[in-house]
Amino acid sequence: MKLTSSPATDPTHALADAIASTAARSRPERDRWYSLSVLVCGIFMTTLDLFIVNIALERIRRDLHASPGDLQLIMVAYSAAYGVFLMNCARLGDLYGRKRIFLIGMGVFTLASGMCGLAPSSAFLIASRALQGIGAALLMPQVLATIRVLFEGEARPKAFSIMGIVQGLASPIAQVGGGLLVTYDLFGLGWRLVFLINLPVGLATILLGYLWIIETKAPIPAQLDVKGAVILALALLVLFVPFLEGQDHGWPWWSVVLPLSSLPIFYYFGRFEASLVRQDRVPIFDITMLSSRRLLAGVIGVFLFFASISSFFLSLTLLLQTGLGYTPLIAGLIFAPTALAFITAARLSPRIIRGVGQRSLLLGISIFFLGLALSVLVAFNAPTSVPLLVTSLIFNGFGQGLTIPLALNANLSTVPEAQAGLASGMVGTMQTLGAAFGVAIVGVIFFGELQGAQAAVAGKADLFGHALGTATYFNLTATALSAFCFSLLTRKS
């Protein structure tokens, strides 16, 4: 693989970063752990809002008269904005200080949360969710970079372990806590509270962050790729918005032509990013790294796997609340075992790796596939059976918990250490864009099936179960293809 002399791969940059790390670590140990306590609050809030909106979707639909396309865009806007701006926001921390950008990101995220909670229409909520995604993109990479700089030796894995536990707990808390807030309709605010609850937490995090977080930055200035981010954002906008809104208008010509017009924009994006590499500049997405067939297979596998995860929970949320009539709290409790199984798998993964070796990644995705397959059987034959649904979700969560960290590590193992940052950013971008893509495709299949099967299927539960089962065929296909990609990724050169 050809290496470039960009700041991401320059040994001088690595040496300067090491000097900065040493200076930051000279601070008292207590200060470093205080910094971590605030940083993980940011991780918790951004992860929470990725999941909590699922529980509120049905009430949002009723209150704002949101169309199927609007519901999907509420989910897609957050993920797509996060993925587009992630790499540039990471470099802003290198340029202007990670503490400063973290606090700005938390401010943007908190402001956007307030806008979501006060949204008078679905269009306003979609725009506010996109702003939330930008806030998350600003603060999230600062957490990872600051932990890497502040901690070394045995303290570093401990710090990352704490971060992982907080991320893992955010999901069940989002499902159950969000269900409580929406079901009991505190102060008559209903679903709006799942966003407004971020205001006091966000303001407290900003205050404590200002007092406690240790400032770090890269001694050698990073490079931004603003034009690349704008091109990618335009391509995604042209792809997703007409496609998702088109289903609400009977698929007019523009709902097909405009998404197809995104293809030359994506092509231009790839050409532009490759030109930056030739100029020894740093793109947000280094296309030239994909000359490694293993990395190419790996990032495609990540894209497909995450396309399967988020989209399935959209279908399941609609089945539980609209099809079966469960309250958001009951729906959240049904979801909770997924997160608990995820945490269990993540904790057991070192032991599983010792026993199974490289096949652990394929084992994880096979368990996830089994969970999806069981969900299809339940949806078509017994959609009201909560025990069977929960069983399928346990397989689902365990498979995710085993697959996700192993997929990241396997992808990073394909590149030299100097390119690990670029590869990690590429994988993170593909995760979020894959999630957005999956929600778009599965949502169209699900809502289309609801309309097409109304005359043939008797009963609301069976109708929504049929729609979930049909839509999940996409998830099964995407998971099978990602397993094939991961088999190429883990194959020895």
TrEMBL record:
<feature type="transmembrane region" description="Helical">
    <location>
        <begin position="467"/>
        <end position="489"/>
    </location>
</feature>
<feature type="transmembrane region" description="Helical">
    <location>
        <begin position="386"/>
        <end position="408"/>
    </location>
</feature>
<feature type="transmembrane region" description="Helical">
    <location>
        <begin position="69"/>
        <end position="89"/>
    </location>
</feature>
<feature type="transmembrane region" description="Helical">
    <location>
        <begin position="226"/>
        <end position="244"/>
    </location>
</feature>
<dbReference type="Pfam" id="PF07690">
    <property type="entry name" value="MFS_1"/>
</dbReference>
<keyword id="KW-0812">Transmembrane</keyword>
<dbReference type="InterPro" id="IPR036259">
    <property type="entry name" value="MFS_trans_sf"/>
</dbReference>
<dbReference type="GO" id="GO:0016020">
    <property type="term" value="C:membrane"/>
</dbReference>
<feature type="transmembrane region" description="Helical">
    <location>
        <begin position="193"/>
        <end position="214"/>
    </location>
</feature>
<feature type="transmembrane region" description="Helical">
    <location>
        <begin position="420"/>
        <end position="447"/>
    </location>
</feature>
<keyword id="KW-0472">Membrane</keyword>
<feature type="domain" description="Major facilitator superfamily (MFS) profile">
    <location>
        <begin position="35"/>
        <end position="493"/>
    </location>
</feature>
<feature type="transmembrane region" description="Helical">
    <location>
        <begin position="295"/>
        <end position="320"/>
    </location>
</feature>
<protein>
    <submittedName>
        <fullName>MFS transporter</fullName>
    </submittedName>
</protein>
<feature type="transmembrane region" description="Helical">
    <location>
        <begin position="33"/>
        <end position="57"/>
    </location>
</feature>
<feature type="transmembrane region" description="Helical">
    <location>
        <begin position="133"/>
        <end position="151"/>
    </location>
</feature>
<dbReference type="GO" id="GO:0022857">
    <property type="term" value="F:transmembrane transporter activity"/>
</dbReference>
<feature type="transmembrane region" description="Helical">
    <location>
        <begin position="250"/>
        <end position="269"/>
    </location>
</feature>
<feature type="transmembrane region" description="Helical">
    <location>
        <begin position="326"/>
        <end position="348"/>
    </location>
</feature>
<feature type="transmembrane region" description="Helical">
    <location>
        <begin position="163"/>
        <end position="187"/>
    </location>
</feature>
<feature type="transmembrane region" description="Helical">
    <location>
        <begin position="360"/>
        <end position="380"/>
    </location>
</feature>
<feature type="transmembrane region" description="Helical">
    <location>
        <begin position="101"/>
        <end position="127"/>
    </location>
</feature>
<dbReference type="InterPro" id="IPR011701">
    <property type="entry name" value="MFS"/>
</dbReference>
<keyword id="KW-1133">Transmembrane helix</keyword>
<dbReference type="InterPro" id="IPR020846">
    <property type="entry name" value="MFS_dom"/>
</dbReference>
